[in-house]
């Protein structure tokens, strides 16, 4: 186990290093001349050169990378051209909105996906199972932005029971806060619920076929008890890892959902950075999402080995 | 009812391994036995037919504006209605199918080409080179696909090539993982050792002994990745960074229609359903093939993460 943890750290560190490298190279190499981009085509060559020296852009690439990495590690992600504020401040301001959104969507996916998966697996090949399978396929196939628009059309435009856009912090006003988040939660959580359901179903089916469940059955244990105590707990363990991976989809999906529902979150900040070519925002957003994703999955993987000591990694 | 095929169902079938049968015969058998695979194959056939022939066969020009016919509800003349310029939505959805299928197919082909090559190298040469390649794959994988693709298109410029390259970059790691896993599992088989003992080069062993044995899982992953790629392409277009206008795309149709959604909902619903239809059918086919070829493959993919 200790060897696995060490090995996993030996993977985590280079990946985080790679993340910074990609975020740096994307902006500084793939993007062409950042000063030119900033000043536009009318600026003279002298002006460009002056600013370049000012920003230290005449230095070799690797020197700039390590300078920049030092800034990033001390929490300085630069200042946004568009907002005139430090990127780190913008990220700190917008992240809570996205946590509300992604956290709720995660709960939607767990509370729909896991029970549906359990019922589907225990009533394999029944009408419920077929229905849930078709529903899960549809949930995966429907684009989250299309679902979001349909939800707005039905619940906000036609029925007028829920607001179509805007954010109210559930801490400030729980009722209004949740009313504003219900549609975004469904729009973002549906596909994840479908994935969790499919995963829970197949891992429970696999566990149910394994020998120790047979043994429990042959000992005369009540089937319901076997299901509860033996199968479900074991089937839940692999499902936990899929939830870690889903975090990436949730962060990516928040870009689209926050745009549709006008939520002032991290995804919207990312999109504004992209659409306005405010590359420092883009760089900060790339770093923070990759950091969150890699760290959460690192923690989940370590927890996983404690939850399930049978796991032996190559 | 084999669409909900499980481990138990498969174990009871005669044991066959994927390298003993041609991919086409597996495909034919899957479509015969699995209702969802049949539905998916027919559905995909329809989509491809519409994408290839639709623009020639359909009576309306997808770009012809007609201001007398703005925002018309579906009718016999315009089965999906018209948009705010009076353009026929069916014709535009058909042309959008081309965009989606081309971006998804070529993008995934790029991803598979890069991923299989790097994955094969990583599996064959374990150690520093292999580890380095896989950490690179993990690095790409740690960015949300949509965010990385958006960033690439925004930075490198919005055109067909860059959208396709973005799809390729975002999805190669999954192919690298599968290929590496498969190479590791066949590397020490007798036929590979035999080839090595008669002095064949590493390049030849990978190319002619190992890769032919792992084409099936790659095709399955390709099908499933195409479904995801279509969702990605439409999200990029929806956010304004997909294939540039005037080429129509489903995602941009949805974005354009949003402000007219209450009085012309068909304009929103037609491209949305087109995306769903295509993704659904690709997943039906991909999942059925995966179950038929190797019921445990999906689990292995997760476990090696």
From TrEMBL, chain A:
<keyword id="KW-0472">Membrane</keyword>
<dbReference type="InterPro" id="IPR000515">
    <property type="entry name" value="MetI-like"/>
</dbReference>
<dbReference type="InterPro" id="IPR035906">
    <property type="entry name" value="MetI-like_sf"/>
</dbReference>
<dbReference type="InterPro" id="IPR045621">
    <property type="entry name" value="BPD_transp_1_N"/>
</dbReference>
<feature type="transmembrane region" description="Helical">
    <location>
        <begin position="12"/>
        <end position="31"/>
    </location>
</feature>
<feature type="domain" description="ABC transmembrane type-1">
    <location>
        <begin position="95"/>
        <end position="304"/>
    </location>
</feature>
<dbReference type="GO" id="GO:0005886">
    <property type="term" value="C:plasma membrane"/>
</dbReference>
<protein>
    <submittedName>
        <fullName>ABC transporter permease</fullName>
    </submittedName>
</protein>
<dbReference type="Pfam" id="PF19300">
    <property type="entry name" value="BPD_transp_1_N"/>
</dbReference>
<feature type="transmembrane region" description="Helical">
    <location>
        <begin position="99"/>
        <end position="122"/>
    </location>
</feature>
<comment type="similarity">
    <text>Belongs to the binding-protein-dependent transport system permease family.</text>
</comment>
<feature type="transmembrane region" description="Helical">
    <location>
        <begin position="235"/>
        <end position="257"/>
    </location>
</feature>
<feature type="transmembrane region" description="Helical">
    <location>
        <begin position="280"/>
        <end position="307"/>
    </location>
</feature>
<dbReference type="GO" id="GO:0055085">
    <property type="term" value="P:transmembrane transport"/>
</dbReference>
<keyword id="KW-0812">Transmembrane</keyword>
<keyword id="KW-1003">Cell membrane</keyword>
<keyword id="KW-1133">Transmembrane helix</keyword>
<feature type="transmembrane region" description="Helical">
    <location>
        <begin position="134"/>
        <end position="158"/>
    </location>
</feature>
<keyword id="KW-0813">Transport</keyword>
<feature type="transmembrane region" description="Helical">
    <location>
        <begin position="178"/>
        <end position="200"/>
    </location>
</feature>
<dbReference type="Pfam" id="PF00528">
    <property type="entry name" value="BPD_transp_1"/>
</dbReference>
TrEMBL record, chain B:
<feature type="transmembrane region" description="Helical">
    <location>
        <begin position="264"/>
        <end position="285"/>
    </location>
</feature>
<feature type="transmembrane region" description="Helical">
    <location>
        <begin position="101"/>
        <end position="124"/>
    </location>
</feature>
<feature type="transmembrane region" description="Helical">
    <location>
        <begin position="36"/>
        <end position="58"/>
    </location>
</feature>
<dbReference type="GO" id="GO:0055085">
    <property type="term" value="P:transmembrane transport"/>
</dbReference>
<keyword id="KW-1003">Cell membrane</keyword>
<keyword id="KW-0813">Transport</keyword>
<dbReference type="Pfam" id="PF12911">
    <property type="entry name" value="OppC_N"/>
</dbReference>
<dbReference type="Pfam" id="PF00528">
    <property type="entry name" value="BPD_transp_1"/>
</dbReference>
<feature type="domain" description="ABC transmembrane type-1">
    <location>
        <begin position="97"/>
        <end position="286"/>
    </location>
</feature>
<feature type="transmembrane region" description="Helical">
    <location>
        <begin position="224"/>
        <end position="244"/>
    </location>
</feature>
<keyword id="KW-0472">Membrane</keyword>
<dbReference type="InterPro" id="IPR035906">
    <property type="entry name" value="MetI-like_sf"/>
</dbReference>
<protein>
    <submittedName>
        <fullName>ABC transporter permease</fullName>
    </submittedName>
</protein>
<keyword id="KW-1133">Transmembrane helix</keyword>
<keyword id="KW-0812">Transmembrane</keyword>
<feature type="transmembrane region" description="Helical">
    <location>
        <begin position="136"/>
        <end position="154"/>
    </location>
</feature>
<comment type="similarity">
    <text>Belongs to the binding-protein-dependent transport system permease family.</text>
</comment>
<dbReference type="InterPro" id="IPR050366">
    <property type="entry name" value="BP-dependent_transpt_permease"/>
</dbReference>
<dbReference type="InterPro" id="IPR025966">
    <property type="entry name" value="OppC_N"/>
</dbReference>
<feature type="transmembrane region" description="Helical">
    <location>
        <begin position="160"/>
        <end position="178"/>
    </location>
</feature>
<dbReference type="InterPro" id="IPR000515">
    <property type="entry name" value="MetI-like"/>
</dbReference>
<dbReference type="GO" id="GO:0005886">
    <property type="term" value="C:plasma membrane"/>
</dbReference>
């Amino acid at each position: 186990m200790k060897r696995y943890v060490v090995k996993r750290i030996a993977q985590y560190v280079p990946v985080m290093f790679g993340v910074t490298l990609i975020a740096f190279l994307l902006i500084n190499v793939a993007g062409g001349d950042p000063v030119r981009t900033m000043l536009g085509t009318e600026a003279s060559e002298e002006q460009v050169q002056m600013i370049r020296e000012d920003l230290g852009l005449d230095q070799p690439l690797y020197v700039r990378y390590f300078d920049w990495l030092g800034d990033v590690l001390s929490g300085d992600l630069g200042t946004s051209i568009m907002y005139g504020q430090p990127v780190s401040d913008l990220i700190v301001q917008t992240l809570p909105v996205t946590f509300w959104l992604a956290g709720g969507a995660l709960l939607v996916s767990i509370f729909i996906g896991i029970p549906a998966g359990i019922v589907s697996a225990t009533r394999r090949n029944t009408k419920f199972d077929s229905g849930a399978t078709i529903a899960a396929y549809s949930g995966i196939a429907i684009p989250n932005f299309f679902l979001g628009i349909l939800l707005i059309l039905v619940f906000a435009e036609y029925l007028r029971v829920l607001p179509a856009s805007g954010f109210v912090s559930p801490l400030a006003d729980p009722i209004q806060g949740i009313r504003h988040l219900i549609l975004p939660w469904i729009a973002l959580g549906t596909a994840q619920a479908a994935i969790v359901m499919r995963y829970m179903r197949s891992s429970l089916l696999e566990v149910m076929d394994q020998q120790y469940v047979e043994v429990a059955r042959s000992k005369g244990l009540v089937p319901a008890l076997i299901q509860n105590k033996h199968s479900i707990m074991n089937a839940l363990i692999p499902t936990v890892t899929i939830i870690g991976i889903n975090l990436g989809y949730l962060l990516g999906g928040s870009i689209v959902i926050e745009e549709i529902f006008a939520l002032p979150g991290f995804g919207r900040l990312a999109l504004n950075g992209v659409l306005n070519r405010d590359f420092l925002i883009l760089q900060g957003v790339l770093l923070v999402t990759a950091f969150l994703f890699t760290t959460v999955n690192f923690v989940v993987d370590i927890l996983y080995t404690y939850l399930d000591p049978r796991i032996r990694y190559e | 009812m084999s669409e909900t095929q499980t481990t138990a169902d498969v174990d009871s079938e005669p044991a066959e391994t994927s390298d003993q049968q041609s991919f086409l015969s597996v495909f034919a058998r899957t479509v015969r036995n699995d209702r969802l695979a049949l539905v998916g194959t027919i559905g995909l056939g329809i989509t491809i037919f519409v994408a290839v022939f639709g623009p020639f066969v359909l009576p309306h020009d997808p770009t012809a504006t007609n201001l007398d016919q703005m925002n018309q509800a579906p009718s016999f003349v315009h089965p999906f209605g018209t948009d705010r310029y009076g353009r026929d939505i069916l014709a535009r959805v058909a042309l959008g199918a081309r965009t989606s299928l081309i971006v998804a197919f070529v993008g995934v082909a790029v991803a598979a080409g890069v991923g299989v090559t790097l994955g094969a190298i990583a599996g064959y040469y374990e150690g520093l080179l292999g580890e380095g390649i896989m950490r690179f794959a993990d690095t790409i994988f740690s960015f949300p696909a949509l965010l990385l693709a958006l960033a690439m298109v925004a930075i490198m410029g919005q055109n067909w090539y860059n959208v396709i390259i973005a799809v390729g970059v975002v999805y190669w790691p999954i192919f690298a993982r599968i290929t590496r896993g498969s190479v590791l599992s066949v590397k020490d088989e007798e036929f590979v050792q035999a080839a090595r003992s008669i002095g064949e080069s590493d390049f030849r062993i990978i190319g002619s002994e190992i890769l032919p044995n792992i084409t099936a899982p790659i095709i399955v992953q390709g099908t499933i990745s195409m479904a995801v790629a279509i969702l990605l392409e439409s999200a990029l277009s929806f956010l304004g960074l997909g294939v540039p206008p005037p080429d129509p795309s489903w995602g941009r149709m949805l974005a354009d229609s949003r402000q007219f959604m209450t009085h012309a909902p068909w304009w929103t619903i037609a491209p949305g359903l087109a995306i769903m239809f295509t993704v659904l059918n690709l997943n039906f086919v991909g999942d059925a093939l995966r179950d038929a070829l190797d019921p445990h493959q999906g689990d292995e993919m997760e476990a090696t993460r």
